[in-house]
Design brief:
By secondary structure, the chain is an all-alpha fold. The chain has one domain (4-33, 41-177). It contains five helices and no strands. It has helices spanning 4-35, 41-69, 76-98, 103-125, 156-177. Helix 1 packs parallel to helix 5, helix 2 packs across helix 3 (76-98) and helix 4 (103-125) runs antiparallel to helix 5 (156-177).
Length: 179
């Protein structure tokens, strides 16, 4: 049987691979939009919102597993990223129910601050100088503390940035091709 540390290590590695896949997916979607080929249209238009929903649900569950099961206390910047992520689960669920693709506009609006907050936190975790105080300094977790560090660059905040960038690319693709 695996120990808790081995389980966390394996999960960290799998999540880091997922983060790399997300940024490659975002690049593919953006290049398809830029070239106006829309070669993925038959896949993205009917299943894009479902994919976004499943991705946001999985991401939400993973944040809760790390904090509630594994006991990692989320810092203030982590909470700000969660504020950008959690509402998208409900929005996308309702959009799937009503078949409303315009939800993509609101998903973009929620994802943009998530990208900036997560990139700032990644900068801190890579040794950058704090120019905006961590919202919970002295109270909870340290925003610059690394819980995950895979491949020599991948941190939780960078995975979060990749998630938000992928969602933005997916939402833009849906908006561009659903007209």
């Amino acid at each position: 049987m695996y120990s808790m540390d081995a389980t966390i290590e394996l999960l960290n590695f799998a999540l880091a691979l997922g983060g790399v896949a997300l940024i490659f997916g975002a690049i593919v979607l953006c290049s398809d939009i830029y070239t106006k080929n829309y070669t993925l249209k038959k896949l993205v238009v009917p299943f894009g919102l479902l994919g976004a929903f499943l991705l946001t649900v999985a991401s939400t569950i993973m944040t809760l597993i790390y904090s509630e099961v594994f006991g990692f206390i989320p810092c203030g910047l982590c909470w700000l990223q969660r504020v950008s992520l959690y509402p998208q689960v409900l929005m996308l669920a309702f959009a799937l129910y009503t078949k409303d693709k315009t939800v993509a506009k609101y998903g973009i609006v929620l994802s943009i601050p998530g990208v900036f907050v997560s990139l700032y936190q990644h900068y801190l975790q890579m040794g950058g100088t704090e120019f905006i105080t961590c919202p919970t300094t002295g109270v909870g977790a340290d925003c610059a503390e690394r819980i995950l560090f895979e491949f020599g660059f991948m941190t939780f905040p960078l995975m979060s940035a990749f998630l938000f960038l992928f969602l933005i690319a997916l939402y833009r693709y849906i908006l561009k091709t659903s007209k």
